[in-house]
Request: fold
Amino acid sequence: MALSGVEIFKLLPKTNCKKCGQPTCLAFAMKLAQRQATLDLCPDVSEEAKQKLGEASAPPVRPITLGSGDKAVKMGEETVLFRHDKKFVNPCVFALEVKDTLSEADIAAFCNQVVDSEMDRVGQKLRVNAIMISNESGDAAKLEAAAKTVAAKAAGVPVIINTTNAQAAETAVKLFADKKPLLFGANASNLEAMAAVAKSNKASLGISAASLEELSELTEKAKGFGVEDLVLDSGARKAKDMIEHNTLVRRAAIKKNFKPLGFPVISFAQRGDSLLEALVASVCIAKYSSIVVLSSIEKWKNLALFTLRQNIYTDPQVPMQVEQKIYNIGDPKADAPLFVTTNFSLTYFIVSGEIENSKVSCRLAVMDSEGLSVLTAWAAGKFTATKIAAFIQESGIDKEMATKELIIPGYVAILSGSIEEKLPGWKITVGPREANAIPAFLKSRA
Reply:
């Protein structure tokens, strides 16, 4: 059972040293109780207190890392049922299934798809995160051969070994023993043997069961065998069952602090129809899956799923922002146009993208509006004539320009007169209301 702030405070050193970043030990205790801080921030806490508080202050869904290096991904660590309560923490992992019945060339082609899947969207690098190697053949040698191909062709990509054969698992997992793989396929009949393989190779263990009750029993047994990093599969394969089971697992962990189900969840979205697979995967993203297994990763599907995942796992209380500064788009000369907009990431990338499409080199002045869009920032008093004028003056951009002209968004045309008054010697031009009109606007000025 989670401890209250006062109960946690009784176990802290009560020195108010501020080393944890909080003004008092009581304030730190309250943060721990709300799961907004971790116990390791207090350097003076006693070992006895660590033992008592460690579990109480841990997130209800255990954090697990899949892979190593710069492509490693973290799962779990979630603390809420709904993103508007706080936020969802670690975006779900997309894993492409590669079956060991495929030829070496086909496996290599799948690996290349994963390696080449990365795309940039509003300043974030998004990709298919992992490869699941499935022992479809039931042959240990074929699984090992497939694993070797993946290790060679997709070096650094996190790996999931999917087999119920402990001997086959041992051979394949050894190839990734120092890279934090996930060994998936433990069940009631092979749990002890699979747990031994996972433990000896420092791998996480994926457990399957026919019901949530059985899953709870198996996770407790796995912990008894010395494996703490677990991933859960309730056996759900239909979308409606995934929603039901994943919700029950998350609710048990968050609301009831039920430790046997406090682990990341894996869901299998593979379908023969690629569009249907994308729809099922969307359900998994929205409803608590930490790993979503796919059978194909076409670019259109990736873009749709990456966008949904990015939106759901963006902190709803903190708008995405880019740095306030003057951005050069293309190779702007002294006569290049100067646009101004807000620092909301989506606004910046849409506007800069349309300027790039125009093939006209420009400068884009991005002003800090606390991550709000143009109209919202204007309504909130964060994108005003006074602030815009001050930003442009302080930037010193006029020294690089042959003609001092500033193009403002069409939605705030009302500000043009006021900005002109506050920027003596500048011409203020009202640009398009919509970003997609920028290319035509720039070409009309040529």
Observations:
- The chain has three domains: 5-57, 64-312, 325-445.
